[in-house]
Specification:
This protein has 20 helices and ten strands. The protein is about 50% helix and about 5% strand. Strand 3 (about 65-70) and strand 4 form a beta hairpin. By secondary structure, it is an alpha+beta fold. It has helices spanning about 50-60, 80-90, 115-130, 135-145, 150-160, 165-175, 180-185, 190-200, 205-220, 225-255, 290, 325, 335-365, 375-385, 390-395, 400-405, 425-430, 435-450, 465-475, 485-490; strands at about 25-30, 35, 65-70, 75-80, 105-110, 275, 280, 300, 310, 320.
C-alpha cells in the first residue's frame, strides 16, 4: 500500500482509505482547517443546502473532498467545498445537539500547489458532474482553466470534457451570453460549442427558437449529427449579414445626407417619388445620380441587395419631366407575381446558405479517416465517363473547392510571358499524398465539379438529372437536406432509382 501523504495540519489523522489515484490516500481533517480554494469552479450556489447539512449531521461526509495545502496549516478545497462547509456547520452545533465532532476525509494534492489551471479544471469536472453548478460557472471555468494550461494538459483536458481543441475560445464566446440567454440555451440542451455559436447569432430574430427546433430534429434522427443545426446557423448568419449590409447602406446614405424614402405609406398618404430612370431633363435627356445630387428632392430607396436606387421625392415640384413610359397609368399590383418574387428571393437565399453547409459536409468526407465506398465509386465513375458537368468544370480550372474539401491552401497559378494567369496545379499535393489518401483527393475533384454545377442561387428552381443524383448521393451518405433542397428534390423523387449516384 502506498505511503499516506504527510499533512502539515495538526488536526490531520493519517487513516488511509481507497482512492482513485494509487498515489493518494484520504486523510481525516478538521473541517475548520479547510478554506475555499480560489480556483474552485463554483462561484454561485456555494452554500450547502439544508438537505446536505442534515445528511452530514446524521452520517457525516461520505465522499472525500480534494484540497491543496494552504497557508498556516490550512487547506483549500477545490472539490467538495460545500461538503466541508456542511461539516463546519454540523460541528458548530454538535455540543448543543449532543453529537460528536466530525472530521472530513480529504485527498491532499500537494502536486497541485502551483498548478492553478489544472486545479480549476479538476474542480470543473467535479462540479459539472454534480448538479447545481450554474451555467455561467461552467463556461467561465472552462475558459479560465484551459487558457492557463500547457498544450499537453489542454489536450488531455479537452478530451476528458469531450470538447475540441479550441474549447477555450469556444467557452470565451459562450461566457459572453447574458444570464437569461445562457440559462435558456442551456435548458434547451445546447452544449458548449452550440452555446458559442448561439452567441454569434443571438441578435438574429428568433435565433433561439430556430436553433432549438433544429437541435430537436437532429436528436430525433438519432444519428449523433448536427446537420439541421448547421443549416439553421447558416440561415441565421445570412440574416445577420443582411442586417449588417442594410445598416451599412443606410449609414452611407445618412453620411452623404441623402434621405431614405419610406417603402410603406399609411391610409391617405401618396408616394410622389419617382426613380431617376423615369425622369428626364427639360431636353428629354436622362438624369443621372451625379446630375441630380444637387436637387432638393435627391433621395433613395434600397433594393433587395441593399443597393441605393436614386429617386426624386417630388419630380413635379422640382421641375423634372416623366419619361413616356412613366406617364402610362400604373398597372394594378399583381399579388401572385409579388408572392412569386418573394418566394424566389427567399429560396435563393436559402439555397446559398445550404450550399455552405453542404460543402462542409463534403469536406468532412474528404478529410475523414476512411472514405465511404460509394464515394470512391462515384469518383471513379466521374473520371471514367467524364459527364458534361465534369467537362465544363475542368475547362474552367476552378480549384478553390478542391482545396476547401481537402483542407489545404488553394494552389496559386503562375504568370505567363503574355501576362495571362495560368491555373494552379496540385502537383505538390500529388507528391505528398500516400496511397491511403489518393481516393480522398480524387473524390474531392469529382465533388468540386458537382458543386460547381449547383453554383447558381436559382439552381433550386430546375434541377438537372446529375444535380438530382448528386444531392441524393449526399443524402444517402448522411447529409441532412435543408428545407429548400428537400423541396427542390421533391418533383424528381418518383423518377429516382435506388442507389443512383451522380
Amino acid at each position: 500500500m502506498a505511503t499516506a501523504i504527510k499533512s502539515r495540519s495538526r488536526t490531520a489523522v493519517q487513516e488511509p482509505s481507497e482512492s482513485p489515484d494509487p498515489e493518494l490516500q484520504a486523510v481525516f481533517l478538521d473541517p475548520d482547517a479547510v478554506r475555499r480554494d480560489e480556483q474552485n469552479a463554483r462561484t454561485s450556489d456555494t452554500e450547502p443546502d439544508t438537505d446536505l447539512i442534515s445528511s452530514v449531521k446524521a452520517i457525516g461526509v461520505q465522499d472525500p473532498i480534494s484540497v491543496r495545502p494552504g497557508p498556516n496549516g490550512t487547506y483549500t478545497a477545490f472539490k467538495g467545498w460545500r461538503r466541508a462547509q456542511a461539516a463546519q456547520i454540523a460541528n458548530a452545533s454538535a455540543e448543543q445537539e449532543e453529537r460528536p465532532l466530525q472530521k472530513v476525509r480529504a485527498y491532499i494534492r500537494t502536486d497541485l500547489a502551483d498548478k492553478d489551471s489544472w486545479t480549476r479544471f479538476l474542480s470543473l469536472v467535479e462540479n459539472d458532474v454534480r448538479q447545481g453548478m450554474s451555467e455561467r460557472d461552467t463556461v467561465q471555468a472552462v475558459e479560465v482553466a484551459l487558457i492557463g494550461m500547457s498544450d499537453v494538459e489542454r489536450t488531455k483536458a479537452t478530451r476528458a470534457l469531450g470538447l475540441r481543441g479550441d474549447a477555450a475560445k469556444t467557452a470565451k464566446k459562450a461566457a459572453k451570453l447574458s444570464d437569461t440567454d445562457l440559462r435558456m440555451a442551456t435548458a434547451e440542451g445546447m452544449d458548449l460549442e452550440q452555446l458559442a455559436e448561439f452567441y454569434e447569432v443571438q441578435d438574429a430574430p428568433g435565433a433561439l427558437q430556430q436553433l432549438s427546433r433544429a437541435q430537436a430534429k437532429d436528436a430525433d434522427e438519432g444519428k449523433g449529427g448536427r446537420g439541421h443545426w448547421d443549416h439553421a446557423m447558416a440561415l441565421l448568419r445570412q440574416d445577420l449579414e443582411e442586417t449588417k449590409a442594410r445598416e451599412a447602406a443606410v449609414k452611407a446614405l445618412t453620411d452623404a445626407r441623402v434621405p431614405l424614402l419610406k417603402s410603406r405609406f399609411g391610409w391617405g398618404e401618396k408616394d410622389l417619388s419617382r426613380p431617376l430612370s423615369q425622369l428626364t431633363t427639360g431636353l428629354l435627356n436622362p438624369i443621372t445620380e451625379q446630375m441630380h445630387a444637387g436637387c432638393e428632392g435627391h433621395s433613395a430607396r434600397l433594393d433587395d441587395e441593399h443597393r441605393p436606387v436614386w429617386h426624386c421625392s417630388d419630380p413635379e415640384k422640382y421641375g423634372h419631366r416623366l419619361t413616356a413610359e412613366a406617364k402610362q397609368p400604373k398597372a394594378p399590383v399583381d399579388e401572385a407575381k409579388r408572392a412569386e418574387r418573394q418566394k424566389t428571393i427567399s429560396h435563393n437565399k436559402a439555397w446559398k446558405a445550404a450550399r455552405e453547409v453542404r460543402k462542409d459536409f463534403i469536406a468532412g468526407l474528404c478529410q475523414g479517416k476512411t472514405l465511404p465506398d460509394e464515394a470512391r465509386k462515384l469518383a471513379l465513375r466521374t473520371v471514367m465517363s467524364t459527364p458534361e458537368h465534369y467537362r465544363q468544370w475542368v475547362t474552367k480550372g476552378k480549384t478553390e473547392d478542391v482545396a476547401r474539401f481537402l483542407g489545404i491552401k488553394e494552389p496559386q497559378g503562375s504568370t505567363t510571358v503574355a501576362g495571362t494567369r495560368s491555373v494552379g496545379t496540385f502537383d505538390a499535393l500529388v507528391e505528398r499524398t500516400g496511397k491511403a489518401r489518393e481516393w480522398h483527393a480524387l473524390f474531392a475533384h469529382a465533388a468540386a465539379a458537382c458543386e460547381y454545377s449547383l453554383r447558381e442561387d436559382k439552381a433550386w428552381a430546375s434541377l438537372f438529372a446529375p444535380q438530382v443524383k448528386w444531392l441524393v448521393f449526399l443524402e444517402v451518405l448522411g447529409y441532412p437536406l435543408s428545407e429548400v433542397e428537400t423541396e427542390a428534390l421533391a418533383p424528381h423523387r418518383p423518377q429516382l432509382t435506388t442507389g443512383s449516384a451522380a
